[in-house]
Amino acid sequence: MSISALAWIFGGFETFKYVLIIFGFFISILIKEVNAKNEYLFYYNNGISKMQLFVYGFLMNFVFSMVLILFINVVLKLV
Q1: pLDDT in tens, 15-29
Q2: What is the DSSP string of the chain?
């Protein structure tokens, strides 16, 4: 999220939207893979593969980001 905030400060809202949806998720996955690679036991024990976890996580991030962007657009138009 901090990367997205920097994008908003230096690039404006248009840059923020793309960074939040795409790069923010992949950077968080990269940090998780580097710092805590072996902490996927809960998901493995429940029959969820790492790829399924990443795809589901990306889809949820995409939906959340789109809702957030719509909300921000509505607020900015009201102000």
Answers
A1: 777 777 778 788 888
A2: -HHHHHHHHHHHHHHHHHIIIIIHHHHHHHHHHHH-TT--HHHHHTT--HHHHHHHHHHHHHHHHHHHHHHHHHHHHH-
